[in-house]
């Protein structure tokens, strides 16, 4: 069942079809909420976003992509959360176990690569809010500029400029050269 | 900046880094079931959110000032206890991922509370419990004296013969019935806090329907224990066989030892 069919059936009240959509986008929605600052409340945010998305499904423009429409709601819920508590969660990022699973030829490369990743992560965390959001959407969530603009409700030009400034700052922090 | 630029090294590095990030998320099926439950059982909290007929802007409901405090925090947080008592049936509090520590996360990925039972869902199958303990104050009783000993009107399963053995535990809070072929049927009064806990790994529990309500089927063997009322201490009991759990009329039920979900649902449907 593709998105369009699942949406059509959800609109007819078929909750099983909506479950399919929820399950399909659950991981991405959690990732988005978490990375945009919901922290350990990401699950509440995502749950609420899916409930709202269902109620607003009649307003969804068919044939438009579902993904950025949904993520916009997730981003909005995250924004409401961080505003209501007056801060965003510290972006606690950990490298998964797979990060250490690659065995390079030279063991010293591990430390160097690991160190650079850690510094890069720290630099992303330290970016000013808008630049961080743009970088997170473009690279950690792998959204296009247009999708990022929709999700964050910014003009595309703002996405471009914020991303550009964020990248420039990251280059200053960690250097442009790969270790 | 005027046309799509090819990704440079830093951008490629960020993309790769994103792939390596370890972000906690509950099993998608659990999220889907939870969302469905919330849609099927809307909380009584006033929620002005209705499908927007114009519907052009999905962000509208969230962007109204104060919506979050008025709407969201209500049902999800404040209403938690009340819903357990009232709407209950179903999953109330889903899923507190223990993301605080890497160790905690590895051990328990999500916690699901359902029908008086706390399910601790982990990434891997928990080691089996070899010991067998009994519930506190568990004593055998006859069917004749059962009504006087149980703290609630005891239900029976019409699809089964009379139980081989019956026990009452915790001063009448829990009634357990046993059959020779390994079937076990527990009933305990509906309470705010979970009474049993179970540790499960993949495959995660399946939701099914039973008399028009949600029920949860755990297909594998799993450690089960109880949570002491007085101080919340978790006391391991034994390795449980596949189990169906459900909730009905202020009582929580668990049926253990049926071979398949269909068989468990069939027997459970005969509750009277």
3D architecture notes:
The complex is a heterodimer of chains A (179) and B (272). Chain A has 179 residues and is mainly α. Chain A folds into two domains: 3-84, Rna Polymerase Sigma Factor, Chain: A; 97-174, Arc Repressor Mutant, subunit A (Orthogonal Bundle), CATH 1.10.10. Chain A has helices at residues 3-11, 15-38, 42-55, 66-84, 107-125, 129-140, 145-152, 156-174. Chain B is α+β, with helices and mostly antiparallel strands and 272 residues long. Helix content of chain B is 24%, strand content 26%. The model of chain B is unreliable at 45-106 (pLDDT under 50). The chains are: A mainly alpha (179), B alpha+beta (272). Chains A and B meet through helix 2, helix 3, helix 4, helix 5 and helix 6 of A and helix 1, helix 2, helix 3 and helix 4 of B.
Topology summary:
The complex is a heterodimer of chains A (179) and B (272).
Chain A: H1 3-11, H2 15-38, H3 42-55, H4 66-84, H5 107-125, H6 129-140, H7 145-152, H8 156-174
Helix pairs in contact in A: 1-2, 2-3, 2-4, 3-4, 4-7, 5-8, 6-8, 7-8
Chain B: H1 9-20, H2 28-40, H3 60-63, H4 67-78, H5 80-85, H6 102-107, E1 110-114, E2 117-121, E3 139-141, H7 146-149, E4 165-169, E5 174-178, E6 184-189, E7 196-200, E8 206-210, E9 213-218, E10 222-227, E11 234-240, E12 243-248, E13 251-256, H8 261-268
Parallel strand pairs in B: 2-7
Antiparallel strand pairs in B: 1-2, 3-4, 4-5, 5-6, 6-13, 7-10, 8-9, 9-12, 10-11, 12-13
Task: Please tally the helical runs of chain B, counting DSSP H or I stretches of 4 or more residues.
Answer: 8
Gross morphology of chain A: elongated
| Major sheet attributes of chain A | none
| Proportion of residues in helical segments of chain B | 10-25%
| Tally of structural domains of chain A | 2
**What is the CA–CA distance across the termini of chain A?**
44 Å
CATH superfamily of the largest domain in chain A: RNA polymerase sigma factor, region 2, helix turn helix motif
CATH architecture descriptor text of the largest domain in chain A: Orthogonal Bundle
- DSSP strand count of chain A: 0
Percent strand of chain A equals under 5%
Q: How far apart are the termini of chain B?
A: 71 Å
pLDDT below 50 for ≥5 consecutive residues: which ranges of chain A?
97-108
Strand segment count of chain B: 13
The structural class of chain B is: alpha+beta
